[in-house]
Amino acid sequence: MLLHDAEGAAWSQRNQRWLTQRLAHWCAVIEERADGADGAEPPDDDNDDDFQPAAWRVRDLFGLSAFEAELLLLAAGIEIDMRLREAVAKALALRPNEPVRLPLSRALAWLPEAHWDALSPARPLRHWSLLQVDIEGGLAQALLRIDERVLHHLTGVTACDERLLGVAQLEPAPQPSADMALAERIAAAMAPLRTPLVLLANEANDAAGRRHARALAATAFAQIGMLSLWVETASLVHVDARDLVLLARRIDREAALSHAGVLLALDSEADAAAVLRLLAQLRSPLIVLGALSPLQLASLPARRVLRFSLPPPQAGLHGRVPPALQPLAQRALQQFHVEPAVLDQALDTVAGMADPTEAEQALWAALREAARGGLDALAQRITSQASHADLVLPPFVAAQLREIGSQLRHRQQVYGDWGFGDGQARGLGIAALFAGESGTGKTLAAEVIAHEAGLDLYRIDLACVVSKYIGETEKNLARLFDAAEHSGAVLLFDEADALFGKRSEVKDSHDRYANIEVAYLLQRIESYRGLVILTTNFKSALDRAFLRRIRFVVQFPFPDEAAREQIWRRQFPPRAPLGAVDFAALAKLPLAGGHIRSMALNAAFRAAGRGAAIAHDSLIESARAEFAKLERPFPESRHGVQS
């Protein structure tokens, strides 16, 4: 439990009165003990309302026993209460002007419920450096002095620990953020957790972008009533391992006393190893500006990890957008993360277009192209004009594909406008698995969904992404998804069983790292703001735990004879010179649509080479070649196919 920030004037005055009365009580106890009388028990607290003095907040916050809490109060009183200091000096028979320190032996005698282990290094008073302890004369004669930062807190004074100067500082109250919706999502995800770790990936890595990310993180903490304690990671370069442990405790203590979350950045100026060591020691709620790989996260104590991505500053609608284009422009800016200058350039492109439909299409295309960023260098972009009319599938499969497309188009409305995405860091992406034999239309279906949504489609070869070097696979995936976030492109991962196949028990480090790679990809899929499609020829080879995390699983059946005839008839454009072809006979060949497409295309090239129309014989020649390529016997006349 962290301290509540209630340092208002009324609370401060009441805290001062309470502290004065409590110290007056212990002063009387010490004076009476010096005169040989038994001291009274401490007075009961006023429980008529929810007032809690700072001393009891510290007690609850750091888990102090009743004796430890009173010991801390007594040490504070020696510093701030003249009468109490004189009473202790008299009881200790100190000379005039001799420094007054509280001996543990006297505290054990004066305070109720005393216990010797209060000054054990494992107990809160020493672990959190709430007291400074001089044990040169032995534990029984240990001299105690309250830490200055703790003393300030007990008296209601707000002041950051001076020993953190240059290392950490409390952030000023944040101004309203331009990305308030994202700040509220982060806050809602953190609120129910005790010690969350938020990873906030910042897509704009310039100075302005870093300032924006820092302000947004502070806003997220403010949404749950917390301040932000900013840690300068560049200051960790020369801190050795032992001092780093002590520094982490001091940062945690300051965060607790100030009711703040810890905020730091992973940047080029920081020593990555030192930052990781610090993160391993910190126990406060954390927001890290940057990305940590699964291997780096595995080196940290277990925490609930929340991942968010901060896009670069968004363009917004302004006076230059014609009224007729504003609905389309608004939807485009929600889909494509572009800067204001890019919107201006796109508007220049469509200026003067008389046809509203043409202008809308041109504006959408310009913004989509600008949002691609570096994605073309990381994956293969597939350009297609395919539509649902090009698919030959059973009605229930076609309905599934239309539902995926509908969710993709209405994602912003449901998650954003209707609030279904509030407080969610995961599960906001749309993931689909397309399963079926090679050539059954899985890739074509992905092309149809992307084209009808007006989005780019990128094919990713997992064989090129997965690396034998530890940690490289996660880096490759991070680069890919970070680039894709700008446009929300449809991502197509071919042959997913290469990575998501059933796994045996972990027997060595390679198995463990492979599982980490799978977990990381699943995390990125679930948090991606677009559609991810994975394909497999062997659904039965996939891990069931993986399938449970996929929203849509679409099984593409092998086409029956009637479906194959439809596919054959659709292969030939109207301008193609088509001779006499027996489509019913060709449909008896047991091959899927992808192979049919290949046979029709090869036959067309044969016909062009001969200067003739595409005839049935050319198609049979192509069919024989296709069966030979697949190392399968050609069915001959028993299937009604004759050359």
Summarize it.
By secondary structure, the chain is an alpha/beta fold.
Structure description:
The structure is a single chain. The protein is an alpha/beta fold and 643 residues long. It has five domains: 9-154, no CATH class; 162-310, Rossmann fold (3-Layer(aba) Sandwich), CATH 3.40.50; 323-371; 380-555, Rossmann fold, CATH 3.40.50.300; 561-639, Helicase, Ruva Protein, domain 3, CATH 1.10.8. The chain has 27 helices and 15 strands. The strands form three sheets. The chain has a six-stranded mixed sheet with strand order 4-6-7-8-5-9, with helices on both faces. Helix 11 links the parallel strand 7 and strand 8 (286-289). Helix 10 (241-257) crosses helix 11 (272-281) and helix 16 packs parallel to helix 18 (442-453). The longest helix is centred in the first third of the chain and has 26 residues, at 9-34. The chain starts with 8 loop residues before the first helix and ends in a 14-residue tail after the last helix. The model is unreliable at 1-7 and 503-513 (pLDDT under 50).
Oligomeric state of this protein: single chain
Number of strands: 15
| Annotated CATH topology of the largest domain | Rossmann fold
Query: How would you characterize the largest beta sheet?
Result: 6 strands, mixed
Q: Class by helix and strand content?
A: alpha/beta
- From the spread of the alpha carbons, the general shape counts as elongated
The separation of the N and C termini measures 82 Å
Rg (CA only): 35 Å
Beta-strand level of the residues, as a percent range?
Answer: 5-15%
User: What's the helical proportion of residues?
Assistant: 40-55%
Q: Which CATH architecture of the largest domain would you pick?
A: 3-Layer(aba) Sandwich
Tally of alpha and pi helices: 27
In round numbers, the mean pLDDT is 83
- Counting structural domains, the number is 5
- CATH homologous superfamily grouping of the largest domain: P-loop containing nucleotide triphosphate hydrolases
Instruction: Name the strands of the widest sheet in spatial order.
Output: 4-6-7-8-5-9
Stretches where pLDDT falls below 50 for ≥5 residues? 1-7, 503-513
CATH class of the largest domain: Alpha Beta
